[in-house]
Specification:
273 residues, mainly alpha, Helix Hairpins
Amino acid sequence: MSAAPGIEALLDIMARLRDPQHGCPWDVQQTFKTIAAYTIEEAYEVVDAIDRGDMAELQDELGDLLLQVVFHARMAEEQGAFAFPDVVTAICDKMTRRHPHVFGDVRYADADAQLVAWDALKRAERTANGVQDTSALAGIARGLPEWQRALKLQKKAASIGFDWPGPAPVLEKLTEEIEEVRAEFDAVQANPNDAAASDRLEDELGDILFVCANLARHAKVDVGTALRRANRKFERRFRAMETLAEATGGLAGKSLQEQDAFWEQAKAMERQG
């Protein structure tokens, strides 16, 4: 096996792509904002490869994600802000600083104690950087997908004791929220033009989703993994429905009752293996 090119080769490629005179017109036109969506997309594609257990695809997707890091670093270098080596130095320093039990003489009783210390170190870093927010909820990025942000908010609150004692009261709260959503649905149906009722419905639906995230946290179930699993299940069964319906002209144009019969048939086939 020949020696693989190092990171310098990738940095050189990005420099050439971004060259205003001889580079790629598309790459030259990009900014931090236009590339941000691609960065998120590549991260999700990494997760998808992990979920599918496809190591070859994971290798490829990790390369795509690394390219995004190099892309952002190159644009920052062009602005005189920082360069790729600065990114590497910063993360090395951060990991060393936040793991004094590995790279120093600090010892923790267990993993929970280490997590408490981790949060304390992060708070100290924010203070040193001039961040004045002293809330227990400080430091949670607003750019996260909202379900992830909900979990982080709940975990932060739980770290100082503000938490349900177990899943039972969370389930009770979920039942309560469902009834409130039911009432707001009735209000909207009674007066579809009532903007206030529609706003209340949105608010109550948000409460349900927040409680569901909390329930998953208490069950030690990752919300993203559970939702991806549900998505895959739906897609698998729907595609099976389409296959079953092909003999009679496909799903389109059939009544909901007929389509539901195909759905139940697809579920039965799946259970039978």
